[in-house]
Amino acid sequence: MLSTDFADLKAYMADNPGAVIEDVARERRVTPRAVIEALPPSMVRIGSGEHFAAGMQDIAGWGEVTLIVHTDDAIFEFTGAVPAGEIGRGYFNLMQPKGLHGHLRHERCAAIAFVERPFMGKVSAFVAFVNVDGGIMFKVFVGRDETRALRSDQLVRFRALADRIAA
């Protein structure tokens, strides 16, 4: 991406920090990673994808969160606890027989982004696992309490994980 294009994207994201990342990427013909990197620095920290397993293990202890997979064709949302997992046979395997389970290609994770920004009139916080192509594998959002505020216990864990991975 040309530096002038990135400067334009940064200006756009500064004015529209709550824009849907995937929509901006599609409209501007850039990767979702580029959109995340264009957010104001106070809203994003990015660490290496080599911490995928450690990040997922930590998230497994957060309790109820919302995991989102956003593709061109659908937005899948799962609200509940992310199960613990382990690496085996080339995948990070979510070890649970029901609810959220599956096999994640952890070696394709190039970066882990920690994003705190306004979204639809509220503060949001999420971890985006970014693949080697600059796409978002999935996002894990800090949960909300009964007043729809971010859960303070999870926000503390989110920030601590960001401190370890994106220092």
From TrEMBL:
InterPro entries linked: Heme_Transport_Util_sf (IPR053733), HutX-like (IPR010413)
Pfam short name (any one): ChuX_HutX
Protein origin, superkingdom: Bacteria
Gene3D superfamilies attached to this UniProt entry: HemS/ChuS/ChuX like domains
Protein name: Heme utilization protein HuvX
